[in-house]
Task: structure prediction
Amino acid sequence: MIYQLKAQLKDIRPPVWRRLLVPGEMTFAELHGVLQKAFDWEDRHLHTFYITKTRGTAKQRIEIGNDGGAGWSDADYEEHKERIFDWLVEEGDRCLYIYDFGDYWKHEIVLEKIIEPQPDAVYPVCLKAVRVAPEEDSMGEGWNPEAIETKELTAMVNAKLAPLCKKVGKEIKKKARKEMEKKAQATQGNVWRALLEKAVAFNRLAPWQWMDDDEIFLVIDPETNERLYCSVIGALGQEHGMVVYIGEQGYKSLQYLLKHPYPEQDPVYTQRAVLISFADRNELSKKDYELLRSQGMTFRGKKQWPQFRSFIPGYYPWTISEEEAKLVTTALDQALDVAQRVKEGELSLPVFPKDGKMFARVGEKMDGTVIWRDDAVLLSELEGEKKTPTYELLVDPKLIKMVKNIGQVYYGSVEFDVGYINRPVQEKRGERPYFPTLVLAVDANSGLIIHNDLLPIENVVMRVQKSFLDMLLRLGKMPREIRMKKETKQMLAPLLRKLPIRTMEVSRIPAAEHVRRTFEMF
Result:
């Protein structure tokens, strides 16, 4: 399709503008070349684009930039990869083109209309050029806007655009379609291609129209024997897709979420799952979009672009791994079967956890072929035997001996709390960030912080035990009473048995929670 754009210089009077016809599949890098010719700039300076309105919605300046090979740009997207039709979709959508960060020439570009290409026409074309632009590096000084008439200027602009012109007709469209089909065939069998195809089919089926998020079903992967607990989301009309809870940790996080709809602790800290959802183009991250581009896939309309997020306890939500992609592909494949049967009334799913059982699709390998069968699993079988976690003593005995020699008593009550804090840490570029563990000791009466420690994700139990001893040594007094949650007490149990400290197990640590919220605000 051909896009009619009006590009106007801002902050200058009388107005300077160009009305242009350009192919919608043109990249922003190519559009930069057109604008340079149209305004008679010399392309001697840096430039960038900002999307200010897309799909009829105003946006907070999404940058599509170009680092010029210098590697300095931190733009959201790269201009040689982004195409006009992905961002300027509806009439009135617009972007800002900045040229020369010294003179700072701002060009507002508005999509006026989308039209069919003429069979024998060439593009880009300037329909109308009004007034010459100021000269390069002039800051607008000495500008004579009336020197050239509109018709003459329009002809001059088209002469400059001539080297960029290409035919856009039926033959060009056929060629592009064949290239995409060829690319798709080359990627067939690819893990990511298979995942995306299943996700697209799932979005088209739209099972959230007749399924609720508590109609959980189980898929047992035939390759790994991993249990995948599937929950279709979107019945409320907001984010739609599916959450796949993985393994025992995933099942526990699923239980917790449904039992605690308003949890005190953010579930992101402990969740083991993969979220499959469908977003608008401008909501995708760079990696999301690069995955789709690598498979030659593009989409139209709202909430059509698939994206995937991995949740691992202690880690920041991140793009999924290849192993997770394989599991999710299996889950989606079976979800399509289950959802279709529910829609047709052939299958009714138990409500979790009220019905005490779960529908399952079990995959088994037989003579190199996977055979799927239905099953019903009791929740009591899935939960297994509940065991209290046990921890070893992991600190230097010399430290314990030093603490035992503390003679003075601290008569106040101490709250000792351990938990994740929402301040993600990325130690290496490109590496998955983690949530550090915040250790806090607070005087319960005064709210005074006695001790704090921020721990990395490795060897947390050992570090918590050591931090507890450090707190006592710095305090120089032995607390008469320490309050802590059950999980913290379990980590410190082998240490507490050796110390003359009375511990009180509590469900909440109010003073420490207040301090934690303050930490997260800054």
Summary: The chain has three domains: 2-171, 191-383, 397-521.
